Amino acid sequence: MLAPIYEFLYRPGIPLQIMGILVGLWLVVSHLFALLKPEITADFLKKLPRHERIGTVLCIIGFAWTFVVWREMDLGEFYKLEMLVSIVLIAGCYGVITYVKEFLAVRSIGFLLILAAGPMLVSAFLKEPESRLLLVGLAYAGALVGMFWVGMPYLMREQIAWVTADLKRLKLGAMGGLAYGVLILVFALAQWGGA
Fold first, then answer.
1. Rounded CA gap, 55 and 42, in Å?
2. Which H helix or E strand runs over 179?
3. What mean pLDDT comes out for the span 51-73?
4. Looking at residue 1, what is its pLDDT?
5. Could you read off the pLDDT of 126-172 as tens digits, one per residue?
6. Residue 33 burial class via C-beta count within 10 angstroms: exposed 0-12, middle 13-18, buried 19 and up
7. What is the spatial distance between Cα 182 and Cα 21, in angstroms, rounded to a whole number?
8. Minimal CB count within 10 Å: which of 35, 114, 164, 189?
């Protein structure tokens, strides 16, 4: 039942062009909204680190994704631990949601950034156009930031406080994200079709 999801994400993975379009559109839409509605975006971002509902939903998504990967990946000689670790993952999800509510949204976003790097890297693995490195760089940057947010979630709060302290900073950041998204979209549509 979980195999099609795993196969779609990791073997052979999402085609490079489709991944580029998805990531590019996500960057364009989110950063365009931030650019056009900076006050609403700033208000949302300030509440995000301690938003319990968003944190709970993202945590469940992250643990479900991890569960799929664990159940479907080749475990080699560790296959005997498959059921035990599956139970630990389910119990861990419940435990984190119940007992680690402090900055749950930040930790969950960091966790998802780490997980999202995998399919992005699989999509770009050994593909020909060097412009694919736009996607690879974003995947590694996301995973790196995700590790810091999981381990030191207060960093996201401080980064949000800095960016939202002046709406000019927020708009400048939104323009940078928008430009990067447009760049990925252009290369995805122009070069990544045959990859």
1. 18
2. helix 167-190
3. 94
4. 75
5. 888 899 999 999 999 999 999 999 999 999 999 999 999 999 999 99
6. middle
7. 10
8. 189
Q: Collapsing DSSP states into helix, strand and coil, what is residue 176? A: helix
For 40-53, the pLDDT digits (tens) are: 999 999 999 999 99
- Return the DSSP state at 153: T
Residue (of 84, 104, 75) closest to 6 by Cα position = 75
* Residue in this structure with the two tokens 């930040």, named with its chain if needed: 106
> For residue 152, what is the DSSP state?
-
Determine the pLDDT at residue 194: 67
Under 8 Å between Cβ of 136 and 116: no
Residue in this structure with the two tokens 């998504």, named with its chain if needed: 61
Q: How far is CA 181 from CA 12, 20, 104, 177, in A?
A: 24, 9, 27, 6
> Cis peptide before 15, with omega less than 30 degrees from 0?
no
Count of other CB atoms within 10 angstroms of residue 45 = 18
CB atoms within 10 A of CB 20: 28
